[in-house]
Amino acid sequence: MNAAAGWALAAAVLMHVSWNLAARRADPRSHFLWWGLLAWLLAFGPWSIVHLIAAANWTVTLAGLLLVTCAANTLYFVALGTAYRHGPVPLVYPIARSSPLWIAAWMALFFGERLPVVGWGGIALSVAGVLALALTARGGARARAVPWAVAAALGTSAYSIANKFAVSALPDYVALLGWISAAFAASWVGLTLQHWRQTGRAKPAVRPPLLLVATAGAFVGNAYALVIHAMRYIPAAYAVAFTNAGIVIAGLIAMIWFREREHWGRRLAAMLAICTGLSLLALR
Fold it and tell me: In which band, very low, low, confident or very high, does the pLDDT at 1 lie, cut at 50, 70 and 90?
């Protein structure tokens, strides 16, 4: 794998794990995603969007891709937040991260991208491991959580494809941050409207600890931007698939640190499948 893509994805994985562990520790009533996106927008939004407007190679196509990214990102966060209200993180998040297979399929069907057999095998094996890991989770209303988790995966596949086509017109990393900030602004408005419809309040009643909010604010957007940066060098399906290494790291932390030992044998087998699939992709 290209070295630049490898380093970018390694950093993205660590950031994904960090902000998802922060979300795990937050009070479920806090609507943590709302606070995390708000923290990002306050810290990075204005100046990065100004740079995006000035630096990007704007065309009608790029503007359309940004609209797709905004809509798909909003779908992802709204669907993910809804799924978390019905099911536990170990069930919902792996399903939401099954998107690499969707991305590869859409790119092949509609855009003529041809991945090698080993690439398809690596993606399929890693996604199978992700889904097997989700099946070991207990609790929650699965029948209500799973459709929303699948919707989140579809949202991920849509914005990932849009990002792949847009990245060549985004000249530097700050422009990537602006791209992400624009998408997050739309997502935050979507989450606010959803929360207002459900509770009659625009702002969640409970605020998470500032350290957790700051963690999300620092890492959530940078993790996304690094994945898009990696797409300069490798297919979008590969880039998104590699972020699933974070599921393995988070799963091991849950087993060791939080002592979640149920179905440990099945969980380790699923993690091994994920790692094997990603190893096949790394050899490409």
Answer: confident
